[in-house]
């Protein structure tokens, strides 16, 4: 079965041929330099052989895509990197795990099938009704694979996880990253400048624990983990991949341990936002007052009525709040929108450490 992958070098096609699960896990070598391991459908690891690994600066990298099945640009990007690795035009000098999160939802062309996978991490998959649907089962497996990768005897100390997405609506900042809640740990100015070099010039600092994939890696493995939004959702094949040239170049450098040549941290070259609150849905009649085509990062003044539910008005509480990811069509109890204010740079480690 792995023969098909070795021939086509198309991991997406290989994954979608067995979207539910994969019986024949396996390992093969690329030349004498890299071991490839397929752990499950959509799960592939590239590991430089030990002699190569010792010469590196030691980063373990997780790149995930398709946690939401219809977010296709990250899938095309990751598939391109896997292809370059399989074709040996890109040689891994760091251990790297690629995860294609929800293959059945990719086939379906939808965000999810039964339940939003990116609300099921940090054990949420097993809470309440438990492992009742394929997304809950997959979330548990994805946690297991990340754990296996980050706790391997070959694991590096510097752990990185970029969970790649695209957003439902347009945005005043086309590409942006969500920095998960990080109590007691400074934000990494070096990572922010890496993102900036990738063309991701906007970062949101999350204010509370969540059940997202990036928070799972950040919390449990102290990874430099981010949810990264790369533009607007488009059908497979319709993405303008020229918009990801910088990101592809920087990921290629990261994987091949080529100098990243990052600029010193400079707050003026990025837009930094602090999440001040998440507004959750409490009633079925929850609705926003603004139009459906309002872009992410649109700002509203103090007192403005953002939404209504159960006979109550939900108003802007700060001088100004910008909104991101407004979505009224979520189940009761889930986040309908994040509200943002400008962030302070006090808690950012401005040194470059690697
Ligand atoms: O565009 C939208 O409304 C959602 C885009 C998306 O999938 N965003 C992630 C963000 C996760 C995080 O907060 O780290 C999500 O909602 O899962
Ligand atoms: Zn998404």
Automatic annotation (TrEMBL):
Record keywords, A-Z: Arginine metabolism, Hydrolase, Metal-binding, Zinc
GO biological process: L-arginine catabolic process to L-glutamate; L-arginine catabolic process to succinate
Pfam families: AstE_AspA_cat, AstE_AspA_hybrid
EC number(s) on file: 3.5.1.96
The keyword Ribosomal protein is annotated on this UniProt entry: no
Cofactor note: Binds 1 zinc ion per subunit.
Domain AstE/AspA barrel-sandwich hybrid: 269-342
Top-level class of the enzyme under EC nomenclature: hydrolase
NCBIfam families per record: arg_catab_astE (TIGR03242), PRK05324.1 (NF003706)
Protein's recorded name: Succinylglutamate desuccinylase
Organism: Shewanella hanedai
Gene: astE
